[in-house]
Amino acid sequence: LLFLSETGGKDRRSGLILTIPLCLEQTSMDELSVTLDYLLSIPSEKCKARGFTVIVDGRKSQWNVVKTVVLMLQNVVPAEVSLVCVVKPDEFWDKKVTHFCFWKEKDRLGFEVILVSANKLTRYIEPCQLTEDFGGTLTYDHMDWLNKRLVFEKFTKESTSLLDELALINNGSDKGNQQERERSIDLNFLPSVDPETVLQTGHELLSELQQRRFNGSDGGVSWSPMDDELLAQPQVMKLLDSLREQYTRYQEVCRQRSKRTQLEEIQQKVMQVVNWLEGPGSEQLRTQWGIGDSIRASQALQQKHEEIESQHSEWFAVYVELNQQIAALLNAGDEEDLVELKALQQQLSDVCYRQASQLEFRQNLLQAALEFHSVAQDLSQQLDGLLGMLCVDVAPADGASIQQTLKLLEEKLKSVDLGLQGLREKGQSLLDQISNQASWAYGKDVTIENKENVDHIQGVMEDMQLRKQRCEDMVDVRRLKMLQMVQLFKCEEDAAQAVEWLSELLDALLKTHIRLGDDAQETKVLLEKHRKFVDVAQSTYDYGRQLLQATVVLCQSLRCTSRSSGDTLPRLNRVWKQFTVTSEERVHRLETAVAFHSTAEKILQECPDQPEAFNEMEQFDEIEAVGKSLLDRLTVPVVYPDGSEQYFGSPSDMASAAEHIREKMKLVSLKKQQLRQPEATTPES
Fold it and tell me: Could you list the residue ranges that cross the membrane (predicted)?
């Protein structure tokens, strides 16, 4: 094509002009023949019917080459060639032309051959149809035409091949049933070239052709009427239309197949999720039935369940993604796919929700088991603490500490009772959940596994109940013992208090019961008060004795030795003996004082005109003796059985009482003297 071209010019018969430039180098006739065949295949049949004018430019070639080319035209294009113009060099072939006259061979060649100089070529062809090489004005860029032709050839080849491929793909998708369409999807599904690239090349080529046609002389290149024939603009448009049509169908086929492929991929992924959840996933849950027999065992089962949940989470994430994809396809899908998509979505949702429910149920069951074992462990620790408290011997310091210990014991027992109640509630809740396991047992008989769990739960609750009952029995015994100890301490405290009271009564008797009365009547009143005072002391002593006897009984019941009863009883007896001795001394003094005051008052109240009352002077002697005895007793201390001594009141108190008795004895003595004086005067008279 570099040496042979169709310039686009036309001869006077409107036939195309074919230019064959020859050079000094050896020309290959085979290549020239092939090039001619190619160039002659470009024009339309209508153009070919008008014939060709061939310009053989032999100015740079030899005569034998020119002659060979002309003869070759006879074999290649005899019918299409109407005129052959051989452009000869100046004065080079003149002597050799006579050896071969082309015009004489016109009938045999089938076309006319003329030898002409370049400057005389315009005689046969208009200058406007000749290029500048031949003195014409036709603008022609062979490299530009060659590049355009190469683009056209490439586009034609690619578009034709692409049309065949697209037609095969589209027709294969239109024929047969669903299975045949599925079988048609093979390695040749994709075209060998990119349709978008080919279409873009065609549009660019068409745009270039249209631009050359309408630019005119403004673009510097004049338009030749042969452009349509040489570059086949209609053919480009036709190919583009066919490509667009087939490509549109191909895009729809691709969309349908892409949708089908996506649907199949979704279906495959759905089945993968379903198969795993109903296979390995369900098998994992089938093997997990235990609840553990302790907190540690339940926690280990929870950790194992979390691992199972982690594996399920990966598949649930795939489920979420698939569900979104299915939802998108449902929104944009065709009617024929809706039923299948909804069925896939429903199947996937049913399996995933069922498996998620089973995982949640298992998690709740293990959490309930953990709470049950936690409560059981707390209750066991409470029972151990209570039992340890009950096993320690009680050695309180006083009743208050016993009351505090008893209160703490009652609080612990109440806490145990609440703990057992909580254990029963947790256990019953756990049993209720276990009874619901059969509803999702995958057809497996879970009676054996459930029975083991139920027996364990019931066994724990029964064991705790028995331990609590034993502790309650021990608490009852301990409560009774502690109450007896409280009574023991109370009796000891009250007995000690009785001793204190009796000691206070003794102290009051010695310090405040001093007066002997001013007359017989007052002394008798004091004597009566003293007897009541003694009765109070007697009651106090008896109360103390009773308390000490109760202490002995409680000590025998508690099998312990009282810490204070052994000391309290001797103290009580000692104080009581001291009080008895002191009381007897007080009674003796009051009785003596009553006798003294009664006799003295009788003597002092009798009239002097009744001398018969004083016939016996021994009464005076008696009262003097009683008074002296009373005075002597006031100075004598009270001697206790242990040899200790104690005085009534203070010395001043005793001195005051003695002074009153002496005053009365003086009055009696004066009375005695008065009575003796009349006896002395009577004999004298």
Answer: none
